């Protein structure tokens, strides 16, 4: 079994641990009313998008999500939350340097004593969820569980759904699809982006991702018999879209009722399985590294 498959399967236990650790980390996370910029790269950027949508919807205050390289941190923020598994990603470190002494910052990372933690005012370390694989699976989802718990969500159903997500049979028509489009709405748009990235990273397979209401505005042109459309959560399948997808002949993955984060776990499993079918080493995808460290970036 690959490290990636092991790490995917360990998510139910990791999620429970993340919930249990909330009291230890709560004070270092964004407080209600703070204006927050959440930054990250790749997977961590997409988790930033999901968390930002959830935090605003929960009424905790303005929350913007940015790719670390594009973050307009000259704006008025009370806190920067940097999501970074490795704690070494160059663009994240640069962003933390830019706000040092001016905006309070928190690094949420998997590695104790890393560069991001040294630059940030506060650190939240989820070392139990660190990964050997290049592609991130259990760290970002455990991080999301911690953040959702901190927003006051009751996660008991999500924790049960995690058990289902790691054992349930995968959709054969998705595994056979030459192209998969993930849809999201609100906080699940970031999850859709991450699901699509996961399949690209692990299997070099053609995926796309859109906010559900944007799908009719052109992207549906890609839908065709054999290809798959996978909304993450019921809100990601707005009224009438099922009929429009059916008309293209594409396979629609109907929302399962599982928590959307558990749906993401199923997408991770699809990514790993596709990689295996294609004979790829899912633990070390070509051209990708655990973290992007730019030697001569200034
Ligand atoms: O969360 P970190 O450690 O900053 O790393 C982000 C990196 O993680 C990845 O998901 C690893 O493939 C990439 O998207 C990105 O380069």
TrEMBL record:
It catalyses: D-fructose 6-phosphate + L-glutamine = D-glucosamine 6-phosphate + L-glutamate. Coiled coil: none annotated. Its EC number is 2.6.1.16. Residues 26-165 form the SIS domain. One of its GO terms (biological process) is protein N-linked glycosylation. GO terms for molecular function: carbohydrate derivative binding; glutamine-fructose-6-phosphate transaminase (isomerizing) activity; isomerase activity. Keywords: Isomerase, Repeat. It is an enzyme of class 2 (transferase). InterPro entries: GlmS/AgaS_SIS (IPR035466), GlmS/FrlB_SIS (IPR035490), SIS_dom (IPR001347), SIS_dom_sf (IPR046348). This is Glutamine--fructose-6-phosphate aminotransferase [isomerizing].
């Amino acid at each position: 079994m690959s490290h990636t498959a092991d790490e995917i399967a360990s998510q139910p236990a990791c999620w429970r641990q993340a919930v249990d650790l909330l009291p230890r980390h709560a004070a270092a996370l964004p407080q209600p009313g703070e204006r927050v910029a959440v930054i990250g790269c790749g997977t961590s950027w997409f988790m930033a998008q999901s968390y930002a949508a959830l935090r605003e919807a929960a009424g905790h205050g303005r929350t913007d999500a940015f790719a670390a390289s594009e973050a307009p941190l000259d704006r008025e923020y009370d806190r920067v939350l940097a999501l970074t598994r490795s704690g070494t990603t160059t663009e994240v470190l640069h962003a933390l340097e830019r706000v040092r002494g001016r905006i309070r910052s928190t690094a949420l990372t998997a590695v104790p004593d890393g560069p991001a933690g040294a630059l940030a005012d506060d650190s939240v370390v989820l070392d139990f969820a660190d990964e050997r694989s290049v592609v991130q699976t259990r760290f970002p989802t455990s991080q999301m569980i911690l953040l959702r718990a901190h927003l006051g969500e009751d996660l008991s159903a999500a924790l049960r759904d995690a058990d289902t997500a790691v054992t349930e049979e995968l959709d054969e028509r998705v595994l056979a699809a030459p192209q998969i489009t993930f849809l999201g709405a609100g906080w699940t748009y970031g999850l859709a982006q991450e699901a699509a990235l996961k399949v690209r990273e692990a299997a070099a397979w053609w995926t796309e991702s859109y906010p559900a209401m944007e799908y009719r505005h052109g992207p549906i042109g890609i839908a065709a018999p054999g290809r798959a459309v996978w909304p993450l959560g019921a809100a990601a399948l707005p009224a009438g879209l099922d009929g429009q997808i059916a008309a293209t002949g594409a396979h629609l993955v109907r929302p399962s009722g599982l928590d959307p984060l558990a749906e993401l776990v199923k997408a991770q499993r699809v990514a790993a399985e596709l990689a295996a079918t294609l004979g790829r080493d899912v633990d070390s995808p070509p051209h990708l590294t655990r973290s992007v460290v730019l030697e001569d970036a200034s």
